[in-house]
Amino acid sequence: MPSDSQHFFSSSAGQRTSVTVLLWRALALLGIVLSIIGVMLPVMPTAPFVLLAAWAAGKGWPRLEAWMLAHPLFGVYIVRWRARRAIPRSAKWFAALAMLCSSVMLQFTGLPLAARLGVPAVMLAVALWIWQRPDQ
């Protein structure tokens, strides 16, 4: 009888071990690891990596995808993103505020002027894109 961890790591279609499936699974794990790091580091986003992990899991790890979709914390956000490309208003405000604070702090660094102007310009473009997404 396989243990719970063996059951979780196996795919629902049997023991597929093709390179493609392993790469999708590796990308899903990378997304999860980066999202965990994003929770701890304010300069790194979390949501895009959660979405990346769910997308990659959907390609090569159905059990992980099902677990993520059923997760009480971020499952609903993945479902909303997939259905309507929706970003909650609170997340929009948090992202915009974090990018604004990062842009201000960046101005007090010794970076070249191009970086101190270019990075905030990219953040502004991302913020505008985020605010164009539906809320629900």
TrEMBL record:
Entry's transmembrane regions: 21-41, 61-79, 91-108
Q: Which GO terms describe its cellular component?
A: plasma membrane
Arranged from A to Z, the UniProt key words for this protein are: Membrane, Transmembrane, Transmembrane helix
Superkingdom in the source lineage: Bacteria
UniProt protein name: YbaN family protein
